[in-house]
Structures are given as structure tokens and as C-alpha cells.
Amino acid sequence: MDNTSAGSDIAALADERRAFNAAISAHGMSPLWEVLHALVPPSPATPCVPAHWRYADVLPFLKQSGQLITAEQAVRRVLILENPALRGQSCITQSLYAGLQVIMPGEVAPSHRHTQSALRFVVEGNGAYTAVAGERTLMNPGDFIITPSWTWHDHGHYGKAEVDSQVVWLDGLDIPMLRFFDAGFAENGSAQQQEVTKPEGINLNRYGANMLPMRHDPPFGKTSPIFSYPYDRTREALYALERHGDIDAWDGVKLRYTNPSTGGSPMPTMGTFMQRLPPGFAGKPWRQTDGAVFSVVEGSGSVSIERAGQKWTFNFGPRDHFVIPSWHTARLQSQPGCVLFSFSDRPVHEALGIHKEERLS
Ligand code: 1HN
Questions:
Q1: Largest Cα–Cα distance of the chain, in whole Å?
Q2: Position 317 in a domain
Q3: Residue from 78, 107, 139, 168 whose mutation best tests the ligand 1 pocket (most atoms within 8 A of CB)
Q4: Quick check: 105 and 160 in contact, CB under 8 A?
Q5: What pTM does this model have?
Q6: Which atom of ligand 1 has the smallest separation from the CA of 99?
Q7: Same domain for 16 and 136
């Protein structure tokens, strides 16, 4: 066979395959051999990219949004943190939603419920509360608060306009995951605010004193019975462990929040973490299949992220947010020391037996 006839054979075959693809396409089919490599990549090939939202850039827009629309009109006045590579999809990773919610003194964000689970991580301000299942909890900076799936919830701000200022928190929801499963339901409450039937703090007394009632049904199904994890306790633990020298070369001092009745994650779909990087920390690199969203609580530092020859470095300060997508190699550094909150879909990876993590040197 000479080169010319081999060339025309190849061209003829290509034509035949194109015609075949068109023919089966008309019957709702397509050839696997065209897409097999992309369907099962050798390692996770996320479309997500690393991204950083500086609080100094975000805050003016949060304040401006307070002038444009009330919390009541908006239902939830939130600026969504959209992954730059997934614009228009309301997600920060393929499975997670994140947004910054702002509530002004005197405002109410009306009662509703949905099957999507939500976490709140308080970024700044005082005087706001969130109500879950008849109990209100004050929201203070650094507090991690849960809205379990299908529980009525509303938010409010006890403060007075002119005297007090806005409260801002990070919302983390499993919206894209429930969208993927087509399992989302939602309902509006009949009243703006749910009736308060329990004294503030009773939830923490009942489930959050390292003890549990002798007999109880889990109040929130697969979600932690505790819905508020105050920062002062978390902070005290992290700083004490730092003083004791319990410092991991990759993570610094890192603790995960737990559901006290199972030891597992507080929510079935999202894991939450808090870590302290001691002064002068230069962490080793790691990668993990769960893409993670970070909120900077105290101090400053930097994160370097690498994937397939591309590199990003974010210098972060208090109240900044950033995302490390799946299977991107990351390392954390901090000169003055810092505290970082983060959340990811790790419990789902673990439940499915697909979680993978590599700690590099
Ligand atoms: C929601 O209910 C809240 O309750 C926040 O504060 C963000 C984003 C999408 C759908 C529902 C909240 C939300 C949300």
C-alpha cells in the first residue's frame, strides 16, 4: 500500500465514521470511543479554578446591596461567590454553593425551609440571630451555625438603624449536589418569623456539653443535633493545642466539627473544619478530591495552588474567602499566624468510598 492510498483509506474511514455518528445521533445515541478518555480521566479534571475574594473588594458591594433591596424583598440578600470558570451556575465548586449574606439592623429574612442543608459562618458584626426549630441563636463572628435540611429558618437583626451596623456571614449550601440528584424541595413559612418556643442556648445545653440526653430521637435526622458551634470554644481549643505543640506539617492545628451523636460530620453533605496556623508556619503541600472553601477568621497568610503546570498564589487577610478545587496541590503559609474556617463535600466522598488525599513533601 503506497502513502496516497493509505491516506485516502484513512480519509474514507473518517467519512464513514462521521456518517455513522450522524446516523446514530438521529436515534439518540453517540459513540463512547469519542469521549471515553474525558469520561474517565486519569485524575480528577475539574472545570473549577482556584479563586480569591478579598473582603475589601466585597464589602462595598455588600453595603451597596443593603441600599438597593431589603432583606425581606430579597428573601435572602446574598452575593453569590461564583467560581470564575462556572459563571451563571451559582456554584463555587461543582457540588457546593457559597455566598455572603448581609442583614441590616432591624431587618428580617423571612421563614422558609428546603431540603438543601445550609451552614452559616459568621464573618463580621453583632446583633443578628438565626432561628431553627423554634430556637434563636445569636450570630457572633467565628460562630459556625447549621440550618438542617427541611427545618424552618429565618434570620433577623436585633440592632437599630443608625446605631448598629450590618452583620455578614458566609452561607455554604449543598445546592448543586441536590440539583444533581434532582432532590430539592422548598416551602415558604406562613409567618415572616417562626414562633420562638425555646430559650436561647437550650440546644447547646442539651447536646453540646459533651453529653447527650439518655433517651432522644435525633431532632434533625442525619444532621447534628447541635445547630450552633460558638467560636470561643473552638478558638480556645486551637490555641491550647498550638501552645502544646500539636502542629501538623500540612495543616497546622486542624480540627473538624462533629455531630456529637455519631462522631461524623455535622451535616451529611458538608464537612466543616477550623485550623490555626502558628506564626512562621510554612506548610507542606497536599491535594484531596474534595474541593474546599475557606473563610479567613483571624490573621493573614498565603495559599499557593498548583495544577498541571498552572500556579496561583493568594495573599489573604481577615474575612477573605478562597476556594481550592479538587485535586489541586495546595500549601498554606502564615508569618503572623492565622485561623481558617473551611468546608467541603468530604463526607459524601467518604460515604461513597471515593475520598482520596495525598500529603506531599
Ligand atoms: C437560603 O435559604 C439561605 O436561609 C441562604 O439564609 C442562601 C441560597 C439559595 C437558596 C436558599 C438562608 C440561600 C438559600
A1: 89
A2: yes
A3: 78
A4: yes
A5: 0.96
A6: 7
A7: no
